[in-house]
Design goal:
The complex is a heterodimer of chains A (135) and B (134). Chain A has five helices and no strands. With 135 residues, chain A is mainly alpha-helical. Chain A starts with a helix and ends with a helix. In chain B, the strands form two sheets. A four-stranded mixed β-sheet of chain B has the order 2-1-7-6, with no helix packed on it. In chain B, strands 3-4-5 form a three-stranded antiparallel β-sheet, covered by helices on one side. The radius of gyration of chain B is 17 Å and the shape is globular. Chain B is an alpha+beta fold and 134 residues long. Classes of the chains: A mainly alpha (135), B alpha+beta (134). Chains A and B meet through helix 1 and helix 2 of A and strand 2 and helix 3 of B.
Chain lengths: 135, 134
Amino acid sequence: MIVGIVAATFGAALETALSSGYTLAQYLGWSWGKFRRPARAARFHLSMIVALLLAVGILMTSVDPIQVTEMSVVFSAVALPLTYVPILLVANDPEYMGEHVNGRVVNALGTVYLVVVCVAAVAAVPLMIATGAGS
Amino acid sequence: MSDEPREREVVGTRVVDARLHLLSRQVLDVDGEPVTTVDDLEVRAPDGGEAVPGEEAWVSAIVGWPVLVTRVLGGHPPRTRREQVAWSDVGHLGTAVELTVAADTLDVGWTERWVRDHVVGRIPGGKHDPEAGS
């Protein structure tokens, strides 16, 4: 069981550190990716190092890590439409997608999911307050 | 990033919407490496002087990320603080703005080079090619 927990948390930590690098680098147009030499995507790798140090720093303040996780999951639900809508727009742009551009059926499904995502985003914070964040 | 050069359409006149086709787009260098995003555009008069409202003006440069701060918060950075790429270096407008020069020859990439030379390049394994095997 310990191996499982280590594997799961280690995987999640890697993914989270990587995502901070990808988010910053792609937003600001920097060179990014693990397929490049680290020196050829220098700012991308530096931002991951900084994010890791910040994360360790936060944990060292002896804050409850479960509470930090709960709060971040809630706020990632709030931010979901902000990542979902741009992807849906690009998927409808033939300039990017060529022949793979979204058709009507896919867009109908995509819109249903958009509603679900928006409801979750709107409900997340009120639910967190109403339930006392699971406490 | 395929090895074959991509076919480029030659179009007589193409209408480009600056907000839709330029602003916030990725800028790639001649090797397809990301350089910056189009955070603003510099517009000048055809003779290179200040653009005059009501008269003809050309896009003279792509302005990079430091201007993002003032675009959000207001104001203008002084011209010497701007990071920009001359419009004459632009080769093709697709889903990204493709340049005809290498990123390392451009001023706009100085932060990338600084971090490469002073931080990441000095870390053991920092120059390891992940696609070259072990």
